[in-house]
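The records we work with from here on pair a chain with its fold. Here is one such record, which you should read through line by line:
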Amino acid sequence: MGASSSASAINDDAESFSKPGLGDLPESCAALILSHLDPPQICRLAKLNRTFRSASSADVLWELKLPSNYEFLVNKLLGSQGSCLNDVVLNNKKQIYALLSRPNSFDGGTKVAWVEKNSGGICFAISWKGMKITGIDDRRYWNHIPTDESRFHTIAYLKQMWWFEVEGELEFQFPPGIYSVYFRLQLGKATKRNGRRICDHEQVHGWDIKPVKFRLSASNGQHAISQCYLSGPGNWVNYHVGDFIIENGKILTKIKFSMTQIDCTHTKGGLSMDSVLIFANGSEEVPKQC
């Protein structure tokens, strides 16, 4: 009976020893599995065991996740951060991805770009300070209001004006893909009272009489025109301007965008302006108003 028990234990040990586990996977196989996942999933699987942790740091893996023109992005967005960053940036693709995934400002802080973590698409936000706005420095028409509702910490608030026109542009080496452009606007002026958000609609007028016209053009010959009435007082709304397509990510493309309501038969006012957003196809969902 003792011999039988010993033999059974040996067989059990041999069977247990012969069963491979995830830790027995070659690192190259683990890296292949990770290559089919998005970056947040890769980081979660890196906690599984030593093999996946090591594979998750491989340059060959993160180069697949980086935009095809990431060298340009590094120079444009990270180049001003100092020489102390150079060794890290040049030798660690995972670190490059992490740095590009956070908001990086450029053009004097009026523009911000980041790589969206799930899709790897690049996104932009362009402050009202980086645009040409009719009468923006005249306090009879506009106020510049500090707020925590904008990534740029201030918004432009239109009190009243007859001729409303906003123009902006961005020249960039966009990675190949489809991009959508939006104006982020709000009817009314949001403030806080006793710790609660309230929105003053008193000066909102004129936007329901004639629609606002949006225009988009790209240096590669693409154009888009749209129009709609502004609505939804008290809420930030992303108004869709149009889309453009990039096929060659190795050349600079200049896009121009505008928003106008220049019918001088009536005044308009009570509008908060934050920024223009540009999202690559597949990036986080942006609601379309019109």
Summary: The first strand starts at residue 104 and ends at 106.
